[in-house]
Amino acid sequence: MRPEGSALGVRAEDRNEPADEAGQALGAQTITCESCEREVPNGSIYCPYCCGEDGREGAIKRGGFVGGILGLIEPLEREGVLVRRSRELLEMEVDRFLVLESDGVIAGCVALYPFPEDRAAELACLAVAEAYRGRGFGERLLAAAEAKGKKSGFKRLFVLTTRTEHWFEERGFVDSSLDQLPQKKQTLYNYKRRSKVLQKSI
Question: Which of 23, 31, 108, 161 stands the most exposed, by the fewest C-beta atoms within 10 Å?
Answer without folding.
Answer: 23
